[in-house]
Structures are given as C-alpha cells and as structure tokens.
Amino acid sequence: MTRAKNQRVVAENFERSAAASDRLGRDMDTAILGLVGEVGSLVSALKKKRRDTDGFLGYHDAVLEELGDVLWYVSAVARRGGTSLSDVLARATNPTQEASSVMLGSLAQAKGFDERAFERALLELAGEAGDLAKRFIGSAYRDNVDALRGDLIKLLRPLGRAAAAAEVSLDEAGQKNMAKTQDRWPTEQKFPPLFDEGLHIDEQLPRLLRVEIYEREVNGKKFVFQKSGGIFLGDRLTDNHLPEDDYRFHDVFHLAYAAVLGWSPTIRAVLKIKRKSLPKIDENEDGART
Length: 290
Hints:
Helix content: 40-55%
Shape: elongated
Order of helices and strands: HHHHHHHEEEHHH
Strand content: 5-15%
Number of strands: 3
Number of domains: 2
Radius of gyration: 26 Å
Distance between the termini: 36 Å
Largest sheet: 3 strands, antiparallel
Number of helices: 10
Structural class: mainly alpha
C-alpha cells in the first residue's frame, strides 16, 4: 500500500466539521448503529481484498475512507454521551495532554503494511463495537459518561492498531472525511457556474423551462408525452418491457439532470441546443454517446 501523506489534523477541528454535518438527531441509537455499520464496512474492505486479491484496486482508498467514517461516528456517539472524541483520544494516548491539542494521528503511526496485524486489529475492533452496542442496549451509559468514555477508549485502541498495520494515517483519514462531509453538507453553499455560462443563448440550456409530462392511451397502448409551449419534445414512449416498469417516464430524469446539474446531453439533443461553437465539447460531451 502507498504510504499516506503526512497531514496533521487537530481532533477538535475534525469534531467541529463532524458536528456541522451531523443530521442523525439527538438520540444515540442511530449514532451507535452507524458506528457498528462503519466498523463492518472496514472489515468488509479486508474481505474484498482477500477475495479479489489484486483485483480490488481501491483497497487503500476504501480503508482510508472507512477509517474516517468510523472516527466521524465515534465523535457522534461521544458527543451524545456527554464527552468528545478529543477527550477520548487524549486519554487513550496521553492522559496528561490537553484534549484541545490532540491530533487524530496521535493514536497510531503507520509502520508498514502488515495484513495479519490489520486483520487481528479489525477483529478486535469489531468485538469492541459489538460490546459497545450491547452495553448501550443494557443502559450502561445512561447518566454514566465515564463508562462510555472508557469503552470508546477501548474501541479506539484497536482502530489505531488497524490504521498502523494498514499503513494509513488517521490524520489523512480525518482530512478526507472533512472534505467529504463539507462537499455533502457545506457550511457555506457556493454554486459553480453553469457548464454553458458565457455561451450564446442559442447554446445554453433554458434557464426557465416548463414541461408538461402526461400519459395518454393510443390504440389501446399507454404512451407518455412531453410537451413544452405546446410543442412535443422527443418521442412518445412506452415501457418497451414486460412486466411494466414505468420506463416510459424516464425522461423526467434527463430533465432533472438539466435542472439540478445544469447538464444533460439528452435534453440538449432534444432541444437542438448543442454547443457547436466548441467542437471538442460538442463531439465529446454533447454527442451521441449519452
């Protein structure tokens, strides 16, 4: 595996990012389920590697992403239980260290890939996650932050060993998770310009388009029609499939691509508004291969 880049991430910064993207509600149940699920996904990455050997080309990136997701859910569980990932990390690595200065990578340093050690650490991690869920169901953490903190410490230690054995940096895992969650739930929404911004209006997708989509029976067969401004768009469609699967309505997805993404080669073709002034774009993006 390729050695990870040396990026340092303060755990408190990671937690701020995690809290800003947290949509799980106040209860701990979903956070516990998510944590157990992400540990399972991490174990699954190893299973796929063993099953597919060199065919699983995304192994390193998959492990990196799943480690970041596990950290996210540890943060979510800790926050709901009255503690924090920073506090748990500090106690797991150096109890005398201030929680505000602990780094994600303080838990473990990559030493070289060791698949057997990785497997053992994952099995231990899975066991700790199962114990955490079992103790939660038994109300062990109700008004008992010390019990939760102690069990999260027990969970983080094999997580650190797994990262070290996989030659993965927890700092980088956290950095990638922060980038992923910021992309999915941005704290400040900034929309990029549309793909055809600045082109002549004849080559732009309409900024306002009202389309009527309706079903009509013709000679005993159901067809779906699309009409805009009294003019039919595209062909009338049937499912062309047994059993019926509503494929005849599928052009609504192409319209959604145009409306939400500002991109749809199919709608460009239907409306005859390909970007002919840009030959390479016209051929490779607006052409027949859609």
